[in-house]
Amino acid sequence: MSIQKYLEQIGLTEKEARVYLAALELGPASIQALTKKSAIKRSTVYEMIKNLKKEGLMSETMKGKRKIFIAAGPETLKRIIKEKEKLLSEIMPELKSISNIGFTKPKIMFYEGREGIREIFWDTIKIKTGMAYWISIIEELTALVGEDFVYKYIEEKAKRGLWIKSILVTSKQPPNYKYLAPLTYERTLRKVRFTPKELDFSNTIAIYGNRVAIISTRKEGFGFVVESEDYAKSMKVFYELLWNISKPYGDMGFRN
């Protein structure tokens, strides 16, 4: 089996593997050199580099006015595989679990670190219909998963036609948050209210379908998802109570 096929088996796409191998063989290289070596069109090479950078397999630097791209060493691949094995070990009990006869066991899935929390975000848009309900600490979320990622999530959710009701924790709003003002709500399919200023939350909560996600702070960096019809219903009751005492943007006296 070729090296490229091995790379594909551990999770890279065919084109990601070709670009990575080209960069590994060339050493520090320009986009032109990578395009020629990998035999992939330039725009696609840029996209593959972006993906590889997210995986920690590619970095860039400047040489004069030119960008130079550098492949991470093979030892980085080994580290990534070990991290995936660790994650698999953590969820193995869940994979092996079965429902007991007579009642339905709720499923609980744990996630750690930036990439783990991002997986929770993507899980919330797997529901095809219905409203998702968020209690969001934007200051913590943007620090935890990245501001650009939060924006990407909001836009992707809107593209899929999925509405959310969002209660934002007033005391923890970051400066210059892009989607704070009401002009953005309809376009991004959001209904938004703000908690009373005296209320404080440490965790973000998302309720969607029969699942409830709890996301901790940046300091702790973990989250978990409970899949339970009854628990989700109970949390929706709590959510509506909080929604009813929260206020729309126009009643909050925010400075424009």
Major sheet summary line: 7 strands, mixed
Q: Uncertain regions: pLDDT < 50 for 5+ in a row?
A: none
Please tell me how large the radius of gyration is: 22 Å
What strand order characterises the main sheet? 3-9-8-7-4-5-6
InterPro entries: TrmB-like, Tscrpt_reg_TrmB_N, WH-like_DNA-bd_sf, WH_DNA-bd_sf
Protein name: Transcription regulator TrmB N-terminal domain-containing protein
Would you kindly provide a written description of the structure presented here, covering whatever features stand out?
By secondary structure, the protein is α+β, with helices and mostly antiparallel strands. It has two domains: 3-77, Orthogonal Bundle (Arc Repressor Mutant, subunit A), CATH 1.10.10.10; 97-251, 2-Layer Sandwich (Endonuclease, Chain A). Helix content is 45%, strand content 19%. The strands form two sheets. The chain has a seven-stranded mixed sheet with strand order 3-9-8-7-4-5-6. The protein has a two-stranded antiparallel ribbon with strand order 1-2. Strand 7 and strand 8 form a beta hairpin. Helix 1 crosses helix 2 and helix 7 (138-145) packs across helix 8 (147-159). The protein is globular. The N and C termini lie far apart (60 Å). The mean pLDDT is 84.
